[in-house]
Structure formats: structure tokens, C-alpha cells
Amino acid sequence: MSTMARVSQEHLDARRRQILDGAALCFARNGFHATSMQDVLKEVGLSAGAVYRYFSGKEELIGAIVGDVLGSVRGAFEEAARQSPPPPPDELVASVLGKTLAARESLLVDGRPAFPRLVVQVWTETLRNEELAAVLREGYGSVRATWGRIVEGYQEAGMMRADVAPDHVARTMIAAVLGFIAQQSLFGPAPVEVLRDGLRALTSMPDDRAAAGGAQLG
């Protein structure tokens, strides 16, 4: 019985994933409002009854897509926050973003990754969809808070200067990732190593202001 239950749950999870991936492709390709549930049914090759068993409509679909992505990202950063010290920022960001993109690398629109385009479509939709905006705000708040704990870990380990508020660093790291995704949507794919190397270079710059200030005082 337990084996049958496990197989059944695996089947349900796989079917749910199939529907979400098909909907994500449709939304990335045509935008949220230009996509109908009929488009989603055609993309996944399932009957209306099979799809509506899982999701009541487009709003629930896009909410589930956003929730899945934010959940996996939050989980990865929470795992990092529990380490002492956490992995360096450049490696951590590249690892989490790389896994997020790799999990959806089979989703292509015109031969290019669909995920960056989908992210931009979601941002656009949140401007008119308060329920989706609330889901995004909650997810962003959770990731931001987790990043704040990671920064505190860096500061406690002496890896990062302690005179900057952790939340300021958290916002900046999230902005770097979102900006990198937006660039991919607008200008084409780029490996996560580009972001990793850029962050590594920026965080390795020496801060000579303190030394200069001390010299002036002397």
C-alpha cells in the first residue's frame, strides 16, 4: 500500500509539474493576458478536467509558479544561513541562481531560456494583480530576511565589514540577481559565472577611504 501511495503521489507531482511548466512556457511566450487556459491545455496536451483538478485558472497557475520558484530560492538561502560561516556571496549567488536556471533549462521560447522572460512577465503582472503582488512581496520579504542573516554570518566571521546594515547588503544582492535576470531577458542568455565573477571583483576592491582618513587626521 505504501508503495502504491508513493507511486500515486509521484504521478500527481509529475502531472502538476507538467502543467506548471506548460503554463510557464505560455506565459513567457505570449504574456499573461494574451494566454488563455485553452492555450495551456494545448501546450500540456491534457483535458480541461485534468488541469482544473490541480488549478482553478490562470491566476492560480501563475501564483503557483511564482511560489515554487521563491520557495526553492528561499530554501537554498536558508540552508546557507545555517552554515558558519556562509559560503562567499559570489559563490552562493551563482550556485542558487545556477540551480534555479538549470531546473528550468528545458523550457525554451524561440530557442532561448523561457525563465528570464517569465520573470519579466510576472513583474509586469504584479502592477495590476494585487494577489500576485502580495505573493511576490511575501516571497521577497522572506528571501531578504534570510539574506540579512547570511550577511550577519559574514560579519561575525570577519568576512564583511560590520558598519553596513545587513538589510542594505541583502537588498543589493537581490537587486544584482534580478538585474542579471532582466539582462538575460532583454539581451540573451549569459552564464551565471558572469555574475559570479563580477561580484567577486567588486567585493575584492580594497576600501582605502579609512586609511586615507587616518592619514589626514595624522
From TrEMBL:
It comes from the Bacteria. Residues 36-55 bind DNA. Keywords: DNA-binding, Repressor, Transcription, Transcription regulation. Gene3D superfamilies: Tetracycline Repressor, domain 2. PROSITE patterns: HTH_TETR_1 (PS01081), HTH_TETR_2 (PS50977). InterPro entries: BetI_C, DNA-bd_HTH_TetR-type_CS, Homeodomain-like_sf, HTH-type_TetR-like_transc_reg, HTH_TetR, Tet_transcr_reg_TetR-rel_C_sf. Residues 13-73 form the HTH tetR-type domain. PANTHER family: HTH-TYPE TRANSCRIPTIONAL REGULATOR RUTR (PTHR30055), HTH-TYPE TRANSCRIPTIONAL REPRESSOR RV1474C (PTHR30055:SF229). This is HTH tetR-type domain-containing protein. The lineage of its organism: Bacteria, Bacillati, Actinomycetota, Actinomycetes, Kitasatosporales.
